[in-house]
Design goal:
By secondary structure, the chain is an alpha/beta fold. The protein is 39% helix and 25% strand.
Length: 150
């Protein structure tokens, strides 16, 4: 395993960017922004009318899904992030992991990540940083990572 390499995943429920945290205190982008496709309108997910059901009295009622389709998309995206990180671990591409995401997304990540990914988790930064430019991200995230190193 490449213990000296640190992968930093900056994400929310709609975007993810991956960086390598270098020993010289820099973040180097290793993948461009990957989007979940959640930019579309909720109407596009639920374009069809809900299914119909017939009650015991013969009346027709619409059938409401048990889960919000948009929440399921967000969950699936965070699961895909965890799987991508797991695959990078399998290839021995890095030894430590730092994640920066909103608290809710971190909780979602922890619930879907494998034990191997969770064991490599070095730092969590519970902040919404996914929409920042690379320069702003360096300004906001590097001081936090430096403070955690010391």
């Amino acid at each position: 395993m490449n213990d000296d390499r640190t992968l930093v995943a900056v994400f929310d429920s709609a975007h993810v960017r991956f960086f390598e945290y270098k020993a010289n205190g820099k973040l180097v982008s290793i993948l461009q922004d990957v989007s979940s496709g959640l930019h579309h309108d909720k109407k596009e997910i639920e374009a069809d009318r809900p299914g119909r059901t017939i009650s015991a009295g013969g009346q027709h009622h619409s059938f409401e899904p048990h889960h919000d389709p948009r929440k399921l998309e967000k969950h699936d995206f965070v699961r895909a992030i965890a799987q991508a990180i797991d695959e990078a671990l399998e290839r021995h591409a890095f030894g430590r992991l730092a994640i920066a995401a909103p608290s809710r997304s971190i909780g979602e990540f922890r619930s879907v990540a494998s034990a191997k990914v969770l064991n490599s988790l070095w730092r969590e930064v519970p902040k919404e940083l996914a929409n920042l430019s690379d320069a702003d991200l360096q300004t906001h995230l590097l001081p936090v990572l430096h403070a955690l190193v010391e």
